[in-house]
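Researcher: Structure prediction, please.
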Amino acid sequence: MTHSMIAIMDCPDEMILAIWNKLDNIEVLYLFVGVNKRFGKLVRDSTYTCSIQLATTNSKTNKYCSLPDSILDRYCSDILPRLNHHIECLILESISMESILLSGDYSCLQKLTFTKISEDNRTKTF
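Model: Predicted structure follows.
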């Protein structure tokens, strides 16, 4: 019996996108921006960059939660500056608003939505 190893890099773009579509956009961007040129091109697809929600939803309470500082820091320092010209809609909470808006020149931004975070929903991890 012959065993073969297939890596994600061996998959066609359509299959990678089908896998990514099972994830939240925020996870796709966090995990795959900066990995390599191929993923960089794929992650710029409007599916992932048109609308970016930088707050998560608590599945139990269905209320918004802020992102952990480490994730938010990477978004502001690395991810948003790479994608800012592709973003048409940002959904964020007021606590991180300043750092997010200062992290790029959002030339295509058409919609800015603010969410309300209650004190008991400050952070959520992936």
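Model: Residues 121-126 have pLDDT under 50 and may be disordered.
Researcher: Thanks, that helps.
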